[in-house]
Each structure stands twice: as structure tokens, then as C-alpha cells.
Design goal:
four-stranded antiparallel sheet, Alpha-Beta Plaits, 44% helix, Beta-Lactamase, elongated, alpha+beta, six-stranded antiparallel sheet
Length: 314
């Protein structure tokens, strides 16, 4: 049996007053400690974000089964099949499990053993701490307890980081933009690019859900009508979105999750409400997957808008 040191508890004492990079340091420190203590029993360790039906690797130690930053469907993961409640699950030989779907997942990943526990924030699953091995492992109560404790610590730390990120976003979106469109008083294209960059800086590393919607309002009869549409867009977006004028007749909407609604649900609500006032409106949307840059999501939304125009032209 491996002798285990509670690195998570040690780190919580060392970094209890830190912010910003605290989550990343905690994750790296914890994974390094688990890899050192477990040795050959579990040679791969990772921390993932679990949100909106996706599992995204945020950090890893060893030759992890998924590249950091990549998103996979939650239901395709071993975590979804094995984790039950806050206690860590340990499967010493996945090839011997009766569940054929579980065996197929293990074969696809090329692993024989798994240990993991959810990261919980107030009872809500926000992530997962996992260990994998390409060879069978023996049951180890001490390791399972250690993973449970570390997952609890990381869940609390990640929850605090998500809360801090949300507060920072709220303040950012409520502040006056550096440059504004002179007709609508909304952020202009330059400020829009800065909004996307700041959202990436604070939330991309956490794989926070986000969507970009590009809205084409078509031909507008007057400045007054344009301002009315801009106001309707901003009102419909609410606190879960921010609107900018990105072109002569185009607007961009950056949205995040609102309660149980994902970012695309927020953008869909915005477009639906706007079409009530302006049936000619066309829109394209794209959602961030994993740790994709929002500039790339914007390009995908533009492509979706182009597809929508082609469909309407048929």
C-alpha cells in the first residue's frame, strides 16, 4: 500500500489568501503530489471541468488520456460511468467489469484501471479529479480516501474561482467601454474585440461556457429605428450577455450561462425577441468548446450567419 501525504491540505495552508492563479497552482500541486505518491499504480492524473454536458481537461500529469483544453461529451467518459456521490471510485481492472459500455470506453482510451471523484461546489458537480493506468491496479483504501479529500479541496477552490470570475465579468460588462458607437452608444468593434479578449483572459482556462451571436438587422429605415433595435438587443441580453455594434448593420452578442440555461439558450432568446420587432433579422451563433479562443468562436458564428443567409436565399 502506498504511503500518502495530503498535499491538498498543505497547499490550502500555504495559499489560503491567494487569488487569480490559485486554482491553477492548486491543480498542478495536487496532480504532482498524486503522481509522486501513487507511483506506478496510477501513472496518469488529470483534472477536468464538467459543465454543459462536456468534460474538458484543465490540467494533467503524465501521458494523460485527453489533451489539456479538449472537450469530450460527459457521457463518453469513465467518470460518468463510475463516479457515484462524493467518494472516490476505484476500478482496478476495467476489462473485468460486467458493463460492456464501460469496457468499451476503457478499451477506447487504452486504460485498465481508474480512480476518480467529482469536484463539487455546493453539491453541484463542476469538475472531476481522475487517475488512470494502462495496467491493472490493486484496491487501495488509502489512495481512494486521498483522492476523495483532494477532490473536495479542488472543488471548493474551483467553486471560489468560478464565483470570482463571475463577479469580475459582471463588473466588466457593467463598466463604460473604452470606445462606443456614436449612434447606439453600445461598445464598438474595437471594444468588442477587447471584450472577447478579457473574457478569454479570465475564463478560457476554466473552460467557462460562452457563445457568440452575430446579428444582422438588415435594412433599417432610420437612426431612430437602429437605436430602438440596439436597445432591444441589450435589454434581451440582460446580465448574461453583452452587446456591441460590430458593423453598419451587424451586432455581436457575447453570452454566458444564466442559471440552468446555457449560453446558446441566452442568445436564442435574444434573437427570438428581436425578430418580434424586426422580422428581417438574421443571426448566426457558435459556442465555445473546451478552451477554444472566443476569436475563433466569433469566426464560427460569422460562418453560421452566412449559412443562414444562404438558406433564406433559396
Amino acid at each position: 500500500m502506498t504511503t500518502l501525504v495530503d498535499h491538498g491540505a498543505a497547499l490550502s495552508v500555504q495559499l489560503s489568501s491567494g487569488e487569480g492563479a490559485l486554482w491553477a497552482r492548486c491543480a498542478d500541486f495536487t496532480l504532482g503530489g498524486l503522481a509522486a505518491d501513487a507511483g506506478a499504480s496510477f501513472e496518469m492524473w488529470g483534472v477536468a471541468r464538467v459543465v454543459a454536458g462536456g468534460w474538458t481537461a484543465l490540467a494533467g500529469s503524465g501521458d494523460v488520456v485527453a489533451a489539456v483544453g479538449t472537450e469530450h461529451p460527459w457521457q463518453d467518459t469513465l467518470c460518468a460511468s463510475l463516479q457515484r456521490g462524493p467518494e472516490a471510485a476505484l476500478a482496478g481492472d476495467l476489462r473485468r467489469r460486467r458493463d460492456p459500455e464501460l469496457r468499451a470506453k476503457a478499451e477506447r482510451l487504452g486504460v485498465r484501471a481508474y480512480v476518480g471523484a467529482p469536484l463539487l461546489d455546493g453539491g453541484r458537480v463542476v469538475g472531476s479529479l481522475c487517475g488512470w493506468s494502462r495496467t491493472p491496479a490493486t484496491d487501495d483504501d488509502a489512495l481512494r480516501a486521498r483522492v476523495t479529500r483532494n477532490a473536495a479541496f479542488l472543488g471548493t477552490t474551483l467553486g471560489r474561482e468560478l464565483h470570482r470570475t463571475g463577479q469580475e465579468r459582471e463588473q466588466d460588462w457593467a463598466s463604460r467601454p473604452a470606445s462606443r458607437d456614436h449612434l447606439t452608444r453600445l461598445p464598438d468593434r474595437r471594444s468588442w474585440g477587447a471584450l472577447l479578449q478579457r473574457e478569454d483572459d479570465r475564463a478560457r482556462g476554466l473552460a467557462e461556457p460562452a457563445a457568440v451571436t452575430v446579428v444582422d438587422v438588415g435594412t433599417v429605415s432610420s437612426t431612430r429605428a437602429l437605436r430602438r433595435l440596439a436597445g432591444a438587443l441589450a435589454e434581451a441580453a440582460g446580465p448574461a450577455g453583452v452587446v456591441a455594434r460590430t458593423g453598419a448593420r451587424q451586432f455581436g452578442v457575447l453570452s454566458t450561462s444564466a442559471g440552468e440555461q446555457g449560453p446558446l439558450a441566452v442568445s436564442a432568446r435574444v434573437v427570438e425577441q428581436l425578430r418580434t420587432a424586426a422580422p428581417q433579422v438574421r443571426a448566426g451563433s457558435a459556442v465555445r468548446h473546451g478552451q477554444a479562443a472566443l476569436a475563433d468562436v466569433w469566426v464560427a458564428a460569422e460562418d453560421d450567419l452566412l449559412s443562414a443567409r444562404h438558406r433564406d436565399a433559396r
